[in-house]
Each structure stands twice: as C-alpha cells, then as structure tokens.
What does this fold into?
Amino acid sequence: MFARSQLFADLPFLPPAFALRAETASDEAAREALLDAAMGPNRRRKSSEAIRRDRLPAEGLSLVVESDQGELLGTVRLWNVSAGTRAGEDVPALLLGPLAVSARCEGLGIGSALMRRAIAESRWRGHGAIVLVGDAPYYERFGFSAEAAARLSMPGPFERHRLLGLTLRDDVLAGASGLIVPTGRPAEIPSAG
It folds into this structure.
C-alpha cells in the first residue's frame, strides 16, 4: 500500500480550491501580470485593445478567479460598445476580453466558469449581446458564432473568422453592421501637471 504522498508525488500540480468573484482595485497588478504571461508582450497591440483603451469595464462585469491562498488564477472583463448600427441607430452590446487563465491551471474549468458567469451576469444586468475576438471552437460551446457578427468589423486588422457574437435577448445583433466602437465610461487619466 502506498502512502498518499507517494501516490500523488508524480502529479505536477494539484488543483487548488478556487473562488469566482468580482474584481477589486487590489487585483490590478496580479491581473496585469497574468495577462502579460498568458497573452505575451504584444497584447496591447490588438484591435480589441484599441476599443478598451482609456475606458472602464462595464459596471459589475470584471471577474476574477482566485485560489484559496489568494493567488489570481483567471480573469475576464467586459466593455460597453456599439456593435455597429441598425437603421441608423447604435446597437448597444458588450465586448468580452481579455479572458486569461494561469498556464498551470489550464484544463481545470476556470475559463469556462468565468465565461458562464460573465454571460449570466451580462444577461442579468439587461445587456442584449456580447461580441469578442477569439477561437470559435472554444467559444461556440457558450453560444458564440461567427454568423452573429458577420456584418461587424473591428478597428484595425483582425481575422474575420475570429470575430464572434452572442445574442442574449431580442435578437439584438440581427441586422447590425459596421464598426464596433467603444461607448463605455472613460477612465480617469492622470493630468500631466
């Protein structure tokens, strides 16, 4: 008979207990470090970043997962945008991203938990649609599709097949077309003087 420590000695990492909660200001440094590690040094050059730059996330839609030791293991944020226009009117929506999970925790369901909570919270708060740029095979399981965002575009270069949409109510994205632009609250930018 093996002792418990011998039985699990070859496992590189045992999943910690984790909690999904709203992001707080004290999470900023850990969130940025996680995003840098997960997405690399060019993450700020993406088209999605142009939409998020100098804006605050949508109210109540910045979520994190932390271990029972307080280590940040995952993050997702959503941003207020106009998903193009329909009949000359802006189409209010959310832009999801970035979604990131610590490399040592991939495959534990943290990303899926963040996605499910982000979608449920967005619906509960009355939002009608979410758009994102990401891998369709991953996001399709949550209801996202390229067809829902087929007539939308991002500022700057983007891969058409990676622009995905999800309607939360009233077929909000039907007939929407054009550029996705930020509409959220501006971030306070420190003055130079």
